[in-house]
Design brief:
Number of strands: 13
Order of helices and strands: EEHEEHEEEEEEEEE
């Protein structure tokens, strides 16, 4: 937090920063006659109306910058975990299956375990008709179908990770990719 003090004994104004000031603040202080006090670790100058107004502006600006830094800090610290094959929480896998018709199931990664294990939950999808009994479908983020989770081991490469299912393979995809769901009854 930045603080401003009026030093009546010296007829001065003092600014103290607990963090490095934002870019340009030090230049403005120097240009307006403020000097650095190395023992007290603060900027000071003889008080004038202009310097007092400038100090208030700097104070407001620096405290606003501190507030923004505090809001951004947790986001910077919170690094998204990634497993050995590049899979992250929130990634989507799909499985295309069926004999006389083609069905597509989507699963969202909700947790990572170890280097290659992932925890999935099935999610819903939206579709648009492209003809008789045929749709293009894509997943809906966080639209979980059930509370049930499944644990799978990711195989393949970082470019093409996949998991085995009892009725096919789960392939990693993105949120915007549409898949053709041919024929349904």
């Amino acid at each position: 937090m930045t603080t401003m003090t009026i030093n009546n004994e010296k007829n001065g104004i003092e600014l103290k920063f607990d963090k490095k000031p934002i870019s340009g603040t030090l230049d403005v202080l120097k240009q307006n006659g403020f000097r650095w006090h190395s023992q007290k670790k603060l900027w000071y100058a003889k008080i004038t109306l202009e310097r007092q107004e400038l100090a208030h502006q700097i104070l407001n600006l620096e405290n606003y910058a501190d507030k923004i830094r505090a809001e951004e800090q947790p986001q910077k610290q919170k690094k998204q975990p990634v497993n050995a094959l590049g899979v992250q929480i929130g990634d989507v896998f799909y499985c295309s299956w069926g004999y006389e018709q083609t069905n597509i199931d989507y699963y969202q990664v909700v947790d990572l375990r170890g280097k290659t294990q992932i925890i999935l939950r099935e999610i819903s999808h939206q579709g648009r008709s492209i003809g008789f009994c045929s749709q293009m479908v894509k997943p809906i983020r966080d639209a979980f179908v059930t509370e049930e989770t499944i644990r799978k081991t990711v195989k393949g490469t970082k470019e093409h990770p996949y998991c085995s299912m009892e009725y096919g393979l789960l392939y990693k995809t993105d949120w915007e990719t549409e898949h053709n769901e041919t024929s349904y009854y």
